[in-house]
Amino acid sequence: MRHLQGAKSSATEGARDANSSHVPKVSRLRKGREFDEIFRTGTRINGELVRILYLRDNGGGVTFGCAVGKKQGKAHVRTRGRRILREAFRGISGRITEGMKIILMLQDRGLASKSTEIQRELERLMTRRKLITKCPAPQ
Asked: Is the pTM of this model over 0.90?
């Protein structure tokens, strides 16, 4: 039985590595002080579905975090919100300008939205502030 479980996990890891849209751990905000820094000194962009907080960082690539507050719902609602935000971010992560720390937060209306709607709004808001390159032509 143990052998089969190991085979499943390695197959899953291989699929995850092959998936280029996966957000690696090194590009995620992990510590509370990183979130606090952006909440205190970052610039805010408010949309209808999502709120973006960002801070320009000359030290490297794009780091990302998402936050859904306890006032927005129970644990399963907040988990779904974070999952939607991560999926929307994956769609645009390759086009974000380097040296950015970004936190994405859902507005109350965003909790009932799909990730494609959130992604469209992220592209619109970030393009307006020149944080992202123009949308690629549809194929």
From this structure: no
